[in-house]
Write a structure and sequence with these properties.
Oligomer: homodimer
Number of helices of chain A: 11
Shape of chain A: globular
Radius of gyration of chain A: 20 Å
GO molecular function (chains A, B): magnesium ion binding; NAD binding; oxidoreductase activity, acting on the CH-OH group of donors, NAD or NADP as acceptor
Pfam families (chains A, B): Iso_dh
Bound molecules: 3-isopropylmalic acid
CATH architecture of the largest domain in chain A: 3-Layer(aba) Sandwich
Low-confidence stretches of chain A: none
Keywords (chains A, B): Manganese, Metal-binding, NAD, Oxidoreductase
Mean pLDDT of chain A: 97
Protein name (chains A, B): 3-isopropylmalate dehydrogenase
Organism (chains A, B): Micromonospora globispora
Largest interface: A-B, 64 and 64 residues
C-alpha cells in the first residue's frame, strides 16, 4: 500500500487535511500516513524551516499531502522559499497542475458563464523561470540600490512540461493546448518556449494549439474562460493565471493543485491553493473541498484513477446540493464527501 | 499652442485617432498636429521601424498621440521592442498610467459589480523590470539551450514611480495606494519595492496603503475590483493587471493609457490599450472611446484639466446613452463626442 507524508501545517491546514485524509481512507483503505510538523508554528518554536533529515524522510514517501503553511508573523519568503519552493525544486516537481472547473451549484462571479461551461487545467512549469532564485542586489539601502531577478529557462525544463501538457490534452475531450508567454517582450525566453512548443506540437497532430500573450490570456480568462482546455505556461505566469482561473470559478477556496514529478523519481505534492487563513482557523468552518480535490489529484497520481474519479464526483454532489448562505462545518463536509465517495 | 505628434499606425489606428483629433480640436482649438508614419505598414514598405531622425523629431513635441501599431505579419518583438518600448525608454516614460472605470451604460462581465463602483488607476512602472531587455540565450536550438530574462530594478526608478502614485492618490477621494509585487518569491526586487514604498508612505500619512502579492491582486481584481483606488506595480505585473482591470470594466476596447514622463523633459505618449484589430480595420466600426479617453489623458498632461474633464464627461454621456446591440459607426461616435465636449 502507498505511503504518504502529511504536512498539515498552519491555520486551517490541519482542519482541511483531516477531511482529505478521511476521504483517502474511505476510497483507498490501508494507505499509510506519516505526519510531519512543518510550517510557521515549527519555525517559531525551533527556528527550523525544513531540516535536511526531514527532506530525506519525505523523499521516501509515495506522495505528500500538504494543508497550508504560513502566517503573517513570518517574514515574507522564509516559508515560501525555505519550504514550499524548496520541496518543489528538491523533488523536481516540474508540473504544477491546477485544474479549474465551474461546478454546478457554485455561483461564479461572471454574469455570462454558466456552471459546467468552464473546465480547464493549467500546467504551470514548477522548477524554473523567475522562481529559480537567481537574483541579487547591490548598494542596498542607498539611493544607488539595484536589485535583479533572473528568469532561467532551459530547453530541458521547458520541453518536458510542454510534453506533459500535450499528454494531458490527449486524455481530454477537446484536445487543445494554449501556450501562454510574452514572446513580444521576453524575446529570449519567449522564443525558447515558442520553439519547444512548436516542436512538441508537430508530434501531436491530433492536438489543437494556440498561443496567447500573458496579458491577453489574463483578459480572456475573465471574458471567455470557456475557451481554454489545457494551458501551459511558465512558473510566474502560471502563478498569476491560476489565481484568475480560481477567481472565475468560485475562488481559491475550491482550487486544488498538484506539484508533480511525473516520472515518480521523487514524491509529488498536493495542496489546496488557499492559504492558512488564520482568521478562521480552529473554528471548524473552513471549506475542505480544495483539500479534498487535491487529495483526488494525489490518488490519481498514485495510479488509482477510478478512486480519484469517485472523489471528484463526491465533490460535485456536495457542491450541487449546497444551499447558498448556509454556513458549512468542516467535519460534516468531510463526512459527507467520504460517504459519497464510497457510495 | 501645444504641438503634438500623431502616430496613427496600423489597422483601426487611423480611424480611432481621427476621432481623438476631432475631440482635441474641439476642446483645444489651435493645437498643432504633425503626422508620423510608423508601424507595420512602414516596416513592410521600407524595413524601418523608428529611424533616429524621427525619434529626434518626436522629441520636439509636447506630446504624442498614438493609435495602434502592429500586424500579425510582423515577427513578435519587432514593433514592440523597436517602436513602442523604444519610445517608452528613450523618452523616460516611467509612469505608465492606466485608469479603469466601470462606466454607467457599460455591461461588465461581473455579476455583482455595478456601474460606477469601479474607479481605479494602475500606475505601472514603464522603464525597468523585465522590460529592460536584459536577456540572452546560449546553445540556441540545441537540447542544451538556456534562455534568460533579467528584471532590473533601481531605487531611483522604483521610488519615482511610487512617488507619482502617492501624488495621484492625494488628488483622489479615497487616497489609497496598493503596492503589488511578489515579495515572497522575488525577494530582492520585492524587498527594494517594499522598502521604497514604506519610505514614501511615511511621508504621506494622509494616504492609506496596503500590499498584495500579484497573484492575490489578480484574483481580487476579479472578485472585488471596487477595493482598489491607486495601484502601483512593476512593469510586467502592470501589463497583466491592467488587462484584467480592463476586462472587468468592459474590455480593452474602452481602456486608455498614457506613457508619461512627469517632469516633461520628454514628450509623454497616449494610446488606447487595444491593438490594431486588422479584422475590423477600414470598416468604420471601431469604437474610438479608448482613443478619445487617451486624448483626455493627453489634454490633462498638457495642463488643461478642465478640457480633459469635459472630454471624459462626454465619454460618460456617450456610453450611458448607447443601446446594447446597436452597432456603432466610428465617425458618428467621434462627432457626438466632440459635440458633447464643447456643449
Ligand atoms: C506561496 C507561493 C510561493 C506560491 C507560488 O508563488 O507559487 C503560491 O502563490 C502558489 O501559487 O502556490
Ligand atoms: C505591445 C506590448 C509591448 C505592450 C506591453 O507589454 O507593455 C502592451 O501589452 C501594453 O500593455 O502596452
Amino acid at each position: 500500500m502507498a505511503r504518504i507524508a502529511v504536512v498539515a501545517g498552519d491555520g486551517i491546514g490541519p482542519e482541511v487535511v483531516g477531511q482529505a485524509r478521511k476521504v483517502i481512507d474511505a476510497v483507498l483503505p490501508g494507505v499509510e500516513a506519516t505526519e510531519y510538523d512543518l510550517g510557521a508554528a515549527r519555525y517559531h518554536r525551533t527556528g527550523e524551516v525544513l531540516p535536511d533529515s526531514v527532506l530525506t524522510e519525505l523523499a521516501g514517501h509515495d506522495a505528500i499531502l500538504l494543508g497550508a503553511v504560513g502566517d503573517p508573523t513570518v517574514p515574507p519568503g522564509v516559508l515560501e522559499r525555505g519550504l514550499l519552493l524548496k520541496l518543489r525544486f528538491a523533488f523536481d516537481q516540474y508540473v504544477n497542475l491546477r485544474p479549474s472547473r465551474l461546478w454546478p451549484g457554485v455561483a461564479g462571479p461572471l454574469a455570462n458563464v454558466k456552471p459546467g461551461e468552464v473546465d480547464l487545467v493549467v500546467v504551470r512549469e514548477g522548477t524554473e523561470g523567475l522562481y529559480a532564485g537567481a537574483g541579487g542586489s547591490l548598494h542596498r539601502d542607498t539611493p544607488a540600490e539595484v536589485a535583479t531577478e533572473e528568469s532561467l529557462n532551459t530547453r530541458h525544463g521547458v520541453e518536458r512540461v510542454i510534453r506533459d501538457a500535450f499528454a494531458r490534452a490527449r486524455r481530454r475531450e477537446r484536445r487543445k493546448v494554449t501556450l501562454v508567454h510574452k514572446t513580444n517582450v521576453l524575446t529570449h525566453a519567449g522564443s525558447l518556449w515558442a520553439r519547444a512548443f512548436e516542436a512538441v506540437a508537430a508530434e501531436h497532430p491530433d492536438v489543437t494549439t494556440e498561443y496567447q500573450h500573458v496579458d491577453a490570456a489574463a483578459m480572456f480568462l475573465v471574458t471567455q474562460p470557456q475557451r481554454y482546455d489545457v494551458v501551459v505556461t511558465d512558473n510566474l505566469f502560471g502563478d498569476i493565471l491560476t489565481d484568475i482561473a480560481a477567481a472565475v470559478t468560485g475562488g481559491i477556496g475550491l482550487a486544488a493543485s498538484g506539484c508533480i514529478n511525473p516520472e515518480g523519481r521523487y514524491p509529488s505534492m498536493f495542496e489546496p491553493v488557499h492559504g492558512s487563513a488564520p482568521d478562521i482557523a480552529g473554528k471548524g468552518v473552513a471549506d475542505p473541498v480544495a483539500a479534498v480535490l487535491s487529495a483526488a489529484l494525489l490518488i490519481d497520481q498514485l495510479g488509482h484513477a477510478d478512486a480519484a474519479a469517485r472523489v471528484t464526483a463526491a465533490v460535485a454532489t456536495e457542491l450541487a446540493s449546497r444551499t447558498p448562505g448556509v454556513p458549512l462545518r468542516t467535519e460534516e463536509v468531510g463526512d459527507r464527501l467520504a460517504g459519497y465517495a464510497v457510495a
